[in-house]
Amino acid sequence: MPAAGRDLPTVTVERQPDGMALVSFLVSGHRQNVITEQVLRDLAAALESLAGGPSPRGVVVCSGLAGSFFAGADIARLEALPAKPLAEIEQLCAAGRDLFGRLSAAPWPSVAVIDGVCLGGGLELALACDYRIATTARHTSLGLPEVKLGLLPGWGGTVRLARLIGPGPAIEFAAGGEPVDGEAARRLGIVDACVSPEEALESARRLLEHEIARAGHHARRRRLAEPIVLAAEEGAFLEAVTSAVILGRTGGHYPAPPAILHTILTGAEADLAAAGGLESAAFARLATGDVSRQLVRVFRLGERNRRDPGVGRVDGEPDGDIVPAAHVEHPAVIGAGIMGAGIAASHLRHGCGVTLVDVSPEAIERTASGILDEAAWDRATKRTDPARAIALAGRLRTATHLSALAAADLVIESVLERTDVKRQVLAEIERAVGPDTVIATNTSTNPIAKLATALDRPARFCGMHFFNPVRRMTLVEVVRGPATSDATIATVVAHAKRLGKCPVVVRDSPGFLVNRLLMPYLHESVEMLREGIDPRRIDRVARAFGMPMGPLELYDMIGLDTAFYAGLVLDDAYGDRIEASPVIPALVKSGRLGRKTGAGFYLYDAKAGQQAKPARPDEGVPALVAAYALPARDTSDRIIADRLLLPMVLEATRVLDEDLVRDGRDIDLAVIHALGFPAFRGGVLAWADSLGAAEIVRRLSPLADLGSRMHPTPRLLDLARTGGRFTAEVPA
User: Fold this and answer.
1) Which of 454, 515, 597, 671 is the least crowded, having the fewest Cβ atoms under 10 Å away?
2) What local confidence, expressed as pLDDT, does residue 579 receive?
3) Catalytic residue among 217, 347, 465, 673
């Protein structure tokens, strides 16, 4: 039996007394309007209704759902595509393009009023209208994010956009996949005007009246139907430059951006029908590829995470009594160091006032302006918005004494990563706050159970591990201690989401989840260095696999001193397979701490700080490594990759066996968001499935003499024997 509301109409047509018609969309059962099969049927019926009755003078297309024009196509439709034949997918694209084409070819002019999210198929629908008006509201954004799912627009988006704003800007917009606000869309030429939400409908009417009077829509339609003829040298230059940029961004791993480039450049010079056919064929090829399948799965994992309250059932419906998450009104951060400042800035950036406490007035003075600059950073302009920084200044409160925490309902401690210091500060926090205040510690290594012994009420305490840099890194490990209550976890998970983060709940364990999976990868790179393998080769192989940087480059970014202390914790817990390397303390002792000091495994421009790029290997490192040399081994690039990455798979199987996470899919989400594990591979467990357990066992066999870190786990052997999979399906 259909769910309640399933058959409610999604499209409403209202004929106005002045001869205009209002076509509005409202898709029930979804947080945002999404294009479902019913929406397409209802739109077709609406167009038939308009064509069958008195012809309207003009049509305004808008949304009946506040803050959402259309968020794109229903993801379930995309998930079903890989199983379909190419010809059937091309037919589906053609059907949608023909439907939107009926809107473009209607005898009356149309204007789309875009207030809220307008993405993917939603923007393609808006592009099918003669005119577009966006609003200045902060929630208004326009984009073609299909590239992030390994796809390109399939309902005429590449065809119409290229003719509207030009092939070059269209390629950049579609291949980048990033949305823009209403004003930026106006500057690009995607929309005709950007007005306040209150003025949008009236502006749309005035625009239609103006264009009807001068028959402007006929001239625009003729212009947009014409092919774009580029001079041979202009086309060659655009293709060469854009190809180089795309290759630099994707490393050649993602087929959608080059497909967008080719489709737009080729389609621009063809007629509309031929260009549409090129687009459909390209979409079908991408939709049946493994990269798109993995990226759609990763998107599903993110959607599932957004529904997950952090307690009870993982799929968003807690077992038994529902544990409510308390809404945090007065958050506070203790510690004005790099991490504390980043956490405070994240609060400001997402509309939360925050109190920052540090015993050092100098530290607060040094940090406050940087927090405001960070919070007011504008992604579009790549610089701080001074007006926004001034506006946010009143929401940042600073203090040098813990009495400022009296009204706080969540306190995030982010002081020095030393157990004794943290325990002392946590005890002082507890004495300063009320009995219901949630206390969290930003730690990457300290066991929550050990820190909790400093508190009288450990049920309200948990870990909240942010990653550096906080603005860019979306994962937050929410670490559940033995005494942590469900209410505490639910509150912290909800608050992390309010900050735009992806929280993953993990059980207290040395290294938690991410560092436990990362350390074998880092450790093996140093072992290969000890065997005489060139550091540049090790890092090159990792990047070729799809990692954003190699393991030795990552060591330098983390800081070798930080890695040293993390390594001690993991060595103490898992020393049989994750030993503390003697090379790391030797580098630290020599003053080589990585990017922050200008030297680590590589040399850097110290003035550039964390933004510095490796210049060349530090020539002093081989002498330090030589003292701990290991026998050389015959190797290949594939073996290097296996040695780096297969130990991560083995550690992930142990994490599953120990129930460290509530669901194995959280492992894939975590490594993608925190370690940059290539999304096109779907995460470490999805990648393991692509190889197959039996193949992994085969690849580990010649590495067995390296020790237990390369020995198959019982779970791996069982999966190899049964042909089982590491991953589970993602529920709708």
Assistant:
1) 597
2) 80
3) 465
The helix/strand/coil state of 24 is: strand
Query: Is 401 a known active-site residue?
Result: no
Q: Which residues have CB under 8 Å from 715's CB, separation 6+?
A: 653, 654, 656, 657
Query: Is the separation of the CB atoms in 513 and 661 below 8 Å?
Result: yes
C-alpha 124/C-alpha 602 separation (Å) is: 47
Task: Give the Cα separation of 589 and 413 in Å (integer).
Answer: 29
CB atoms within 10 A of CB 380: 12
Contacts (Cβ under 8 Å, ≥6 apart) of 132: 111, 112, 114, 126, 185, 190, 191, 192
User: Looking up tokens 């401690």, which residue turns up?
Assistant: 413
State both tokens at 663: 């669901």
Contact 473, 444 (CB under 8 A): no
Spatial distance between the Cα atoms of 10 and 697, rounded to a whole number of angstroms: 52
Length of the chain: 732
The dihedrals phi and psi of 57, each to the nearest 5 degrees, come to -75, -30
AA letter at 279: E
CA 145 to chain centre: 12
Show the DSSP H helices in 467-599 as ranges.
486-498, 514-530, 535-545, 551-558, 560-574, 583-589
CB of 363 closer than 8 Å to CB of 336: yes
pLDDT for position 158: 97
Per DSSP (E only), the strands in 288-395 are 331-334, 354-357, 377-378, 383-384
Sequence-ordered list of residues with C-beta below 8 angstroms from that of 600, at least 6 positions apart, any chain = 555, 556, 560, 587, 592, 593, 594, 618
Question: Exposure string (b/e) for 386-408, b if CB count within 10 Å is 16 or more?
Answer: eebbeebeeebebbeebebbeeb
Instruction: Give the CA radius of gyration of the chain.
Output: 28
DSSP letter at 354? E
Distance CA 694, CA 726 (A): 12
Tens digits of residue pLDDT in 592-622: 999 888 999 999 986 655 556 777 899 999 9
Residue 461, class by beta-carbon neighbours within 10 Å (0-12 exposed, 13-18 middle, 19+ buried)?
buried
Q: Which helix (H) or strand (E) holds 439?
A: strand 438-441
Q: Give the C-alpha separation, 159 to 227, whole Å.
A: 10
| H helix runs in 658-713, sequence order | 665-675, 684-691, 693-700
The string of pLDDT tens digits covering residues 268-289 is: 999 999 999 999 999 999 999 9
Compute the distance between CA of residue 510 and CA of residue 40 in angstroms, rounded to an integer.
Answer: 52
Domains and CATH numbers, the chain: 11-288 (3.90.226.10), 331-508 (3.40.50.720), 515-722 (1.10.1040.50)
Who's near 30: CB < 8 A, 6+ residues apart? Answer: none
**Residue tagged 């026998």 (tokens):** 631
Instruction: Tell me if 13 sits within 8 A of 50, measured CB to CB.
Output: yes
Which strand (E) or helix (H) includes residue 478? strand 475-480
Residue 130, SS3?
coil
